[in-house]
Amino acid sequence: PNIQMFLPDKTPKALHQTQAQHTIVYFWDSECIHCVRVTPQLREMAKRFSPDLVQVFAVNIESDRNLWLQAVETKQIGHWINVNDVENLSGYREAYDIWSVPTIFLLDSEKRIVAKMVTVEQVEQIINGRLGISTEL
User: Strand 54-60 to strand 81-84: parallel, antiparallel, or no bridges (unpaired)?
Assistant: First the structure.
């Protein structure tokens, strides 16, 4: 489902506005111990693809806007599409069944779910497979 949330400058941004062959929807929280491990992995993996192939739509779920903005800066993920919806006006929790983080979805260019509840490694394998890139050594 399309969800509309807010960028750091409080501008609305809809998920379906992303323009890439693959969109990674990453639900996270800056204080989540598992997110602390996964966020840098996702950042490095996403760097291996051009923005027309892969974009990250990073949905921060925490209620403290300042913590979110500080985390975007310190985790060096400002090039992602960073959004937040403190009051869940978008209904993202119900639409994507988000009750814990980190949670990763992979969408195709038509915003259809290709994979859900996957690891960073699985996302990269799926994208490489869809692009016909061999990951064997």
Answer: parallel
